[in-house]
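The following block was generated as part of the benchmark described in Methods. Ligand: zinc ion.
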Amino acid sequence: MLNVHQYSLLSLSLSLSLTTLALFLLVSAQEDHQQDTPIARFQRYLRINTAHPNPDYSPAISFLKLQAQSIQLQARTIEFTPGKPVLLLTWPGSNPSLPSIILNSHLDSVPAEPSKWVHPPFSAVRSPDGKIFARGAQDDKCIGVQYLEAIRNLKAKNFVPTRTVHVSYVPDEEIGGVDGAAKFVASKLFQELRVGFALDEGQASPGDEFRVFYADRSPWSLVIKAEGTPGHGSRMYDNTAMENLMKSFEVISRFRDSRFDVVKAGEAANSEVISVNPVYVKAGIPYPNGFVMNVQPSEAEAGFDVRMTPTADPDLMRRIIAEEWAPAWRNMTYKITEKGPLRDYTGRPLVTPTNDSNPWWSVFKQAITAVGGKLAKPEILASTTDARYLRQLGIPALGFSPMTNTPILLHDHNEFLKDTVYLKGIEVYESIISSLSSFEEASH
Ligand SMILES: [Zn+2]
């Protein structure tokens, strides 16, 4: 048994150690929140919730503007649509007559389901092994901060760019960029920037080579509708809406298989073929707790996600849809919604050359090698980014997010980026920005 004296000593030491623990926790939390290091700044940006459906853009803009001020970059905020700001930062070059370079990233992110995460998605917790968990850690707040950190380091080394360097932050990429990058690149302001080359987001690489993307696939939303004679569920007769829709499914499945077989055989990457995937089916006569089971409905509808490769022939695709997938003679109609351009303003595919014909490419490649990086074979991105709007203007644009040995977690639960990978990325951008901005040959 403890006597009163011993007990009070024990409780004193216990309360002391609790105080120490509390102090320690407080200090480490403050370290995380208040330190002004490249990693702390990344965490601060990640803690700003810019996820859809209600992205809060203004704190993100304020944070970035403050960063820009701290390294003496000019800053302009433009709202092409109210509440959807574009932030443009500028580092003037010593020879402003040369075309500029622009480093783009988007401010928004897709939503996260907090219950499925090991750490809250907007806490930017750094685990003991250096993983920084947050929605946007890979897509694409990493590059938004790395651009600034690289410029900060270059300025500290008294580097002066020859070409002007712009850094842009655009809203709404995750919902198609119509009120973001599309309006920005169409503006008079953008024209005045005289952009010669652009970098935008890419994707993580599970291996030790950096991935780079020279084109995106372009999404089409396809809705097909079938109409037919309604009738009793027991009868077999031709031309019901469901029968017509099922026939479409068979034809579309064959098209899908023919492309997918090429991928499975290793002849092409996923992103190098046209893909089509059913995303919804709508039919039947609703009834409490289900559907009427003895009536064949007069209407049936299905939706498909179609991804066009940059060199796909849109006219041919439209003909296949009209003649085979939803033929009028089978009482079918369809609607294609093209989400973004497929050709540039001169009618050419939206492809940035990754060979010697593009002088920017050689400079970019060398900049990566210069910091000990290896570059994988350039790829087409399976999905879509804002880079397509830049390519539409004929501006060479590469998709690049410097993340090697990193699982691809964009839009996934527990999205993270390792601190070491993030820091290496800053070094890579230093090399890229200094090389591209001091490169004098290419006039456009
Ligand atoms: Zn993204």
